[in-house]
């Protein structure tokens, strides 16, 4: 009986902590306002913030917080005070599409929320886009890469309520770029002509794995085997043992570290033939977290994280990187994550949308929300952001997609390990010629 | 608890098990055989806990998977906090053995005490309540354990230091048998050590149950609680000892899990516990040999699915086999008919 009571206390304590961590960002960013007590207007975030996802969600939300605090400090919106409504879609430490849907419903039902940054995971976006589409709330994802989220044939099913109103835009390059970019990198830069592909059975992992595989074969490489392992998998050793006799020159981990790819890396390295060969992954593996960040790839894989490369579906070499780095570090005491600057840019898109709406005489929340949404994909509308001038095509894809390449270096951060930037590459919008789905 | 006699049925079972192992070895090849044996050893250690508790008080102890999880975290804590080990191999075999002993002995004792405490406060007051009541308590205990660990360690996966060096123990070359290519390879010291530790613990358990006074008390309590108590067996003490052993074995399983898989998380008890429970049912719940065999059967099915390239179907295969076994042998592979008690 006593044990049971302690357990209940523990549960309620955990709930209180969760509630605190969700609500504190809003109040802290409001306090930073210098333009006096203006009318409150909110930007939502919907990201995985806890457990194994900490390395993904927290630096991304911090990018939004920084944008809000700086906009308030510079009084970009006279008479208004920006605040954050932060939501967490991680359940038991892993992103959860059902939780994402609940969070999105609560964001669209908060009348003061006029734009949202997120989500992080494509599978979560599939649930959230229809909710935001019905409510006419602009979502700007810094990190979603699944091609079908915006590209007409698949994207139609997410826009059933308002098929002609785009409410979802993204600054991340889609997997139709990320997968092939990874394949070319493995084939040309790493010089590996045969590869083993392991996906995590999720929307993102299967999609990026498919586009990687197609490009690698087109390059002339050989895919020795393709496997799928759901996130409940605990033992990846038999999968790698089964492939060992085929002697792949590299491994592509098509998925994210919270859904098992970090563990696959760690266990795969113990199988003979995989000790030193290059492993490559998409941005779900290249989380850019150091070895001390709980749940990051290097933290989980330890010494096995040597010789791992990864793509990040965004720009690395931003116009004023040093200032952003300094400001971010001063505010949060850590280096920015892979998507911090891009999330900052997403917040800027929303803030500039609000500014334009207010300048045009709109003062009610519903009107501003609709103006922010419509303005994002309006033809010829450009946004001046920290990652440069950005605009979106008719489907909501960025017109200037970038891909950055990173590599692990276990000597960084006093031997704890970290990621080093290798190069970045500009691409053309693959869907630019596509028309809006009817 | 029965079927511990070493007479002819046991001999027959042993022959079947050995034959099955040889076939599995020939089909999977040596490296996958070792993978399956290691995985099976972990499942078997946990399955024993389910089956022992069921055998003695007919309770499906749903908290057992989480007891195992606590064991994994207790091992992680000893490795990282008092011992302060990093993710580096320990190359000196004596130091390595010493480290393992320093981890496994306190973990097994601590887990045993935890098992006794759980039995004393969550199950004993409900021993004469309807069957459903302790079952719900077990689920409650499972949530309590998960939440305590989540509050103490957080929800992130925690890397377990990989202290085993890559020493190779045993090499078997590839060979061809009647046109069948059998893959050879080298067994890692880690796998061999884990299998030996698990099999040794299971052997000690068999001897304990079959040859000691306390073991006899356990068997008699399992057969008929009232009669045993009339004959002077202390029922409460016997049941407490059963819980102690079950939880201690789960603790050892937890240590092996962390060292072998390299990462532990507060919710790992659910999936692994489910697999181990399936193993216990497959082998015939209430039967210790059956539980161990069931654990290995499930591990071999999973590894075979991965080897054949059907990894995402491995759980389907496991539960299909379970359903087939239960359709044709309702009491499991090694189970005895439990009549109206079941």
Whole-number total of structural domains of chain B: 1
Strand order of the largest sheet of chain B: 1-6
For the CA atoms, what is the radius of gyration of chain B? 20 Å
CATH level 3 topology of the largest domain in chain A: Rossmann fold
What is the domain tally of chain A? Answer: 2
Strand percentage of chain A lies at 15-25%
Q: Report the mean per-residue pLDDT of chain A as an integer.
A: 87
Largest β-sheet summary of chain B: 2 strands, antiparallel
Measured between the Cα atoms of the first and last residue of chain B, the distance is 14 Å
Structural class of chain B: mainly alpha
What is the helix fraction of residues of chain A, given as a range? 40-55%
Count of beta strands of chain A = 16
Which percent range describes the beta-strand content of chain B?
5-15%
Q: In one word, what is the shape of chain A?
A: globular
List the SSEs and their pairings:
The complex is a heterodimer of chains A (438) and B (342).
Chain A: H1 2-31, E1 39-47, H2 54-73, E2 80-88, E3 90-91, E4 94-95, H3 97-108, E5 113-117, H4 122-135, E6 138-141, H5 152-155, E7 168-170, H6 175-189, E8 194-199, H7 203-219, E9 222-228, H8 237-244, E10 250-254, H9 257-268, E11 279-281, H10 297-301, E12 308-312, H11 321-332, H12 340-359, H13 365-377, E13 383-385, E14 388-390, E15 402-409, H14 412-415, E16 418-426
Parallel strand pairs in A: 1-2, 1-5, 5-6, 6-7, 8-9, 8-10, 10-11, 11-12
Antiparallel strand pairs in A: 3-4, 12-15, 13-14, 15-16
Helix pairs in contact in A: 2-12, 3-4, 6-7, 12-13
Chain B: H1 8-28, H2 30-57, H3 64-80, H4 93-123, H5 132-153, E1 158-159, E2 168-172, E3 175-177, E4 180-182, E5 185-188, H6 189-211, H7 213-223, H8 225-230, H9 235-261, E6 263-264, H10 268-283, H11 288-308, H12 314-328
Antiparallel strand pairs in B: 1-6, 2-5, 3-4
Helix pairs in contact in B: 1-2, 2-6, 2-9, 2-10, 2-11, 3-4, 3-5, 3-9, 3-10, 4-9, 6-7, 6-9, 7-9, 10-11, 10-12, 11-12
């Amino acid at each position: 009986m006593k044990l049971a009571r302690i357990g209940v206390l523990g549960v309620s304590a955990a709930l209180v902590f969760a509630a605190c961590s969700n609500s504190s960002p809003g109040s802290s960013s409001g306090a930073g306002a210098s333009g006096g007590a203006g009318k409150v207007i909110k930007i939502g975030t919907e990201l995985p913030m806890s457990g194994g996802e900490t390395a993904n969600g927290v630096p991304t939300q911090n990018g939004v917080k920084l944008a809000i605090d700086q906009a308030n400090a510079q009084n970009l919106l006279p008479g208004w005070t920006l605040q954050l409504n932060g939501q967490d879609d991680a359940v038991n430490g892993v992103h959860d599409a059902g939780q994402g849907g609940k969070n999105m419903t609560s964001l669209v039902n908060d009348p003061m929320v006029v734009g949202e940054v997120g989500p992080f995971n494509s599978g979560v976006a599939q649930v959230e886009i229809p909710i935001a589409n019905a409510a006419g709330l602009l979502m700007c994802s810094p990190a979603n890469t699944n091609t079908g989220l915006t590209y007409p044939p698949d994207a139609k099913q997410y826009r059933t309520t308002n098929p002609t109103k785009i409410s979802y835009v993204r600054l991340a390059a889609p997997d139709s770029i990320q997968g092939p970019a990874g394949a070319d990198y493995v084939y040309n830069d790493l010089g590996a002509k045969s590869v083993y592909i392991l996906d995590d059975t999720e929307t993102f992992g299967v999609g990026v794995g498919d586009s990687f595989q197609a490009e690698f074969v087109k390059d002339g490489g050989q895919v020795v085997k393709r496997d799928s392992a759901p996130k409940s998998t605990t033992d990846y050793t038999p999968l790698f043992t089964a492939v060992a006799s085929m002697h792949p020159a590299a491994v592509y981990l098509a998925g994210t570290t919270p859904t098992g790819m970090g563990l696959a890396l760690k266990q795969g390295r113990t199988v003979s033939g995989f000790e030193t060969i290059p492993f490559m992954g998409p941005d779900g593996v290249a989380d850019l977290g150091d070895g001390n960040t709980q749940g990051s790839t290097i933290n989980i894989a330890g010494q096995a994280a040597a010789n791992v490369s990864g793509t990040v579906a965004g720009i690395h070499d931003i116009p004023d990187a040093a200032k952003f780095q300094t400001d971010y570090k001063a505010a949060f005491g850590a280096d920015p994550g892979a998507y911090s600057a891009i999330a900052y840019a997403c917040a800027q898109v929303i803030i500039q949308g609000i500014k334009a709406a207010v300048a045009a005489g709109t003062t009610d929340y519903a009107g501003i929300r609709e103006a922010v949404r419509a303005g994002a994909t309006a033809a010829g509308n450009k946004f001046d952001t920290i990652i440069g001038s950005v605009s979106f095509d008719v489907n909501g894809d960025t017109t200037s997609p970038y891909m950055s390449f990173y590599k692990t270096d276990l000597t960084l951060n006093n031997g704890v390990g970290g990621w080093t930037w290798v190069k970045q590459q500009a691409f053309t919008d693959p869907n630019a010629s596509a028309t809006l789905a009817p | 608890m029965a079927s511990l006699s070493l007479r002819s049925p046991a001999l027959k079972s042993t022959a079947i098990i050995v034959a099955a192992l040889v076939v599995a070895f020939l089909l999977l090849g040596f490296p996958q055989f070792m993978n399956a044996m290691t995985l099976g050893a972990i499942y078997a250690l946990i399955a024993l806990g389910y089956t022992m508790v069921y055998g003695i008080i007919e309770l499906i102890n749903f908290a057992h998977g989480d007891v195992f999880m606590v064991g994994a975290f207790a091992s992680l804590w000893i490795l990282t906090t008092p011992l302060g080990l990093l993710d580096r191999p320990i190359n000196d075999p004596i130091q390595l053995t010493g480290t393992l002993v320093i981890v496994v002995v306190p973990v097994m004792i601590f887990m045993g005490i935890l098992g006794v405490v759980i039995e004393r406060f969550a199950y004993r007051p409900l021993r004469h309540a309807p069957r459903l009541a302790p079952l719900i308590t077990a689920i409650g205990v499972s949530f309590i354990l998960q939440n305590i660990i989540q509050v103490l360690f957080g929800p992130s996966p925690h890397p377990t230091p990989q202290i085993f060096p890559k020493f190779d123990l045993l090499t078997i070359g590839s060979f061809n048998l009647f046109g069948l290519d059998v893959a050879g390879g080298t067994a890692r010291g880690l796998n061999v050590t884990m299998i030996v530790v698990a099999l040794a613990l299971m052997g000690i358990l068999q001897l304990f149950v079959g040859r000691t006074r306390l073991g006899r008390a356990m068997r008699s309590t399992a057969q008929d609680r009232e009669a045993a108590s009339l004959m002077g067996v202390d029922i409460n003490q016997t049941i407490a000892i059963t819980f102690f052993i079950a939880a201690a074995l789960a603790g050892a399983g937890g240590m092996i899990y962390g060292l072998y898989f390299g990462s532990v998380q507060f919710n790992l008890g659910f999936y692994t516990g489910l697999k181990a429970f399936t193993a216990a049912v497959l082998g015939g719940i209430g039967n210790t040999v059956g539980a161990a065999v069931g654990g290995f059967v499930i591990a071999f099915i999973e590894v075979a699915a991965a080897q054949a390239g059907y990894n995402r179907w491995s759980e389907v295969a496991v539960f299909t086999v379970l359903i087939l076994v239960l359709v044709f042998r309702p009491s499991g592979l090694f189970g005895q008919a439990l009549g109206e008690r079941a």
